[in-house]
Design brief:
heterodimer, A: mainly beta, six-stranded mixed beta sheet, four-stranded antiparallel beta sheet, 12 strands, 0% helix, B: seven-stranded mixed beta sheet, 11 strands, globular
Chain lengths: 114, 115
């Protein structure tokens, strides 16, 4: 069974600095999709960034970028120039090719210190 | 921007009672999902629904659970006889396509408390 592990239950960073959230996953598949979701205190999960496993180029979305290491089964999220509005729970998720379900990690609670 | 909505935001029920959690997916979306998150644990997939049928379900989604799209806009999750361990946050999600990196849009969740 596929599993997703986020080894950092909590992280904190100073405003304007850079933080990296870790995610590893376990799968025997070669084609799949990876996602980072953000869940602010209002509790609605919002997609931050996504990556296709067949693409070697790391995805970027403004201040958010990923470091996708397929061989290591690692998918970390880097947030540059952290802002107070980035404070949230961040979930890493995996979706197998041909399936619809998302498999989530445990989440990392990110605190931004002003 | 269109959103997935869920009602109620909090439901309290007695063990053994039936509950129905309601969701209104984004209007042109075709695929619908329920996930749950027990306090302090991972978000877990329950079921996906397409073309008025269950397309995928997890081991958690046993005979106590059912889903329905009764009127073309609502998407409901019914728990027939609630147990204490059903207490969790239940999230509805929807997306337009099933494959690739198509985004699943999540609702704000319904907190179910079983006493």
């Amino acid at each position: 069974a596929q599993t997703v592990t986020q080894s950092q239950p909590e992280m904190s960073v100073q405003e304007a600095e850079t933080v990296t959230l870790s995610c590893t996953y376990d799968t025997s598949e070669s084609d799949y999709y990876l996602f980072w979701y953000k869940q602010p205190p209002s509790r609605q999960m919002i997609l931050v960034i996504r990556q296709e496993a067949y693409k070697q180029q790391n995805a970027t979305e403004n201040r958010f970028s990923v470091n996708f290491q397929k061989a290591a089964k690692s998918f970390s999220l880097k947030i540059s120039d952290s802002q107070l509005g980035d404070a949230a729970m961040y979930f890493c998720a995996y979706r197998p090719q041909g399936a619809q379900k998302l498999v989530f990690g445990q989440g990392t609670r990110l605190t931004i210190n002003p | 921007e269109p959103e997935v909505t869920q009602t109620p935001s909090h439901q309290v029920t007695q063990m053994g009672q039936e509950v129905i959690l309601r969701c209104v997916p984004i209007s042109n979306h075709l695929y619908f999902y329920w996930y749950r998150q027990i306090l302090g644990q991972k978000v877990e997939f329950l079921v996906s629904f397409y073309n008025n049928e269950i397309s995928e379900k997890s081991e958690i989604f046993d005979d106590q659970f059912s889903v329905e799209r009764p009127d073309g806009s609502n998407f409901t999750l019914k728990i027939r006889s609630t147990k204490l361990e059903d207490s969790a946050m239940y999230f509805c999600a929807s997306n337009l396509l099933a494959g690739g990196t198509d985004t699943q849009y999540f609702g704000p969740g319904t907190r179910l408390t079983v006493l």
